[in-house]
Backbone:
């Protein structure tokens, strides 16, 4: 039994912090109003300039203590242009107008930009929620009104309906001719009478397609999640802006809460390898082994994403590489621990150490997230090593000492092979790791 000199970060657990290939995860924001919260998914794919414009106002506080100044029941409620500051309604400063980007119909629950009636490219800071399907009207005038997001759930729709159900007051016969007020009868309008947006904040968001195996980059929404599998989860605002790497705690285990981030599997927090705004790498808890599905939620600073339901698989074997799941496998030569690459190929008879994960249940059962040393569990179903589709004997197949519980180490002697790259895989039960991973031979 040999102790590898690969450290936790050297297996690309940290280097995997990259954008999700071929996927866009839209940002979500939460409108805190005095009548309830409204969660909205923004749509930068459809309206990139408009979303950037909205976020710019939001991030500099221009929408804090904003008021809904216009309500047309059955049509729209409008805000963004005025704020309640020191008991007075003041006009919010405007930036340059944004180019019109009409691409999505003005259906119920969408948010769109207000603009001048004579200029399609005049939107600045005012926006409105569509209370009904207004496409036949708003899609066909003034270049179409730019939709840049949609309310996420029924709770948010209930809030805009609640606002629209308030009595409207004609305050000035002009801009404030149809202003919704709460608990107002007559006389001076008090602060509490205004329908206010106290703040708009970003909230974490992810999608099922953003869950991948951390070694192979294959999606887990179809393959399933295996107990102990090391996963990369992509999202928006799911962690801190700066990447934070975990360090073992006093018990020698990875934390289940890191920089305000938690990933919950059926409400049980999983060990975290690192977290960032766009990606989290975690180890799936071994306790999911007897389940058919598992509900996964990301929590950042106490705010949770929607639930992603994933099938549970007995195993999802995969090999670590140095190129996003393809190319040369993460292999070391024993006893010098040099890395096997095309520039440093292995020879027949060499003793090699191969690294992977996704082998499924292990015995004995050790704590999730433990950094392993003396006690090394082995897979309940022994992994088979395949080179060019043919089984190769192994001298060891089990937990990798010095790495997190879930990482797999396989020791083997290189058989007689021709010079060049050879496909290398591992098989657990009827599951085989993806193709495209190489062992380089001299």
Residues:
């Amino acid at each position: 039994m040999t102790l590898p000199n690969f450290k936790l970060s050297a297996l690309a657990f940290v280097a995997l912090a990259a954008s999700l290939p071929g996927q866009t995860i839209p940002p979500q924001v939460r409108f805190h109003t005095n009548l309830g919260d409204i969660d909205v998914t923004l749509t930068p794919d459809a309206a990139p300039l408009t979303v950037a414009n909205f976020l710019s106002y939001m991030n500099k506080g221009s929408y804090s203590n904003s008021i809904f100044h216009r309500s047309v029941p059955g049509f729209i409620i409008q805000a963004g242009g005025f704020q309640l500051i020191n008991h007075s309604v003041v006009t919010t400063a405007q930036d340059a107008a944004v180019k019109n980007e009409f691409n999505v119909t003005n259906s119920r629950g969408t948010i769109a930009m207000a603009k001048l009636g004579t200029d399609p490219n005049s939107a600045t800071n005012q926006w409105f929620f569509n209370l009904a399907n207004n496409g036949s009207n708003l899609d066909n005038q003034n270049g179409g009104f730019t939709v840049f997001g949609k309310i996420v759930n029924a709770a948010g729709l209930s809030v805009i309906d609640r606002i629209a159900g308030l009595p409207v007051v004609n305050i000035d016969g002009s801009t404030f001719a149809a202003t919704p007020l709460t608990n107002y009868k007559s006389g001076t309008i008090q602060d509490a009478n205004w329908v206010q947006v106290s703040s708009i904040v970003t909230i974490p968001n992810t999608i099922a397609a953003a869950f991948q195996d951390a070694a192979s980059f294959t999606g887990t929404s179809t393959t399933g999640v295996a107990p102990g599998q090391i996963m990369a989860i992509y999202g928006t605002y799911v962690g801190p802006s700066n990447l934070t790497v975990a360090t073992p705690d006093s018990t020698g285990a990875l934390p289940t809460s890191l920089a305000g981030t938690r990933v919950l599997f059926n409400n049980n927090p999983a060990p975290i390898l690192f977290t960032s705004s766009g990606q989290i790498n975690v180890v799936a808890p071994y306790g999911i082994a007897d389940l058919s599905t598992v509900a996964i939620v990301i929590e950042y600073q106490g705010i949770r994403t929607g639930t992603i339901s994933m099938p549970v698989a007995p195993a999802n074997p995969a090999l670590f590489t140095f190129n996003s799941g393809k190319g040369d496998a993460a292999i070391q030569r024993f006893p010098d621990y040099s890395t096997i690459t095309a520039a440093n190929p292995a020879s027949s008879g060499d003793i090699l150490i191969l690294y992977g994960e996704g082998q499924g249940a292990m015995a004995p059962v050790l704590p999730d997230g433990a950094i392993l040393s003396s006690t090394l569990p082995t897979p309940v179903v022994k992994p088979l090593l395949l080179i060019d589709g043919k089984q190769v004997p192994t001298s060891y197949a089990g937990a990798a000492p010095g790495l997190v519980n879930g990482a797999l180490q396989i020791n083997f002697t290189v058989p007689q092979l021709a010079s060049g790259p050879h496909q290398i895989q591992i098989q657990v039960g009827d599951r085989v790791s993806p193709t495209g991973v190489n062992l380089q031979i001299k």
Summary: Residues 317-441 form a domain with the Immunoglobulin-like fold (CATH 2.60.40). Helices lie at 48-59, 135-138, 154-164, 220-223.
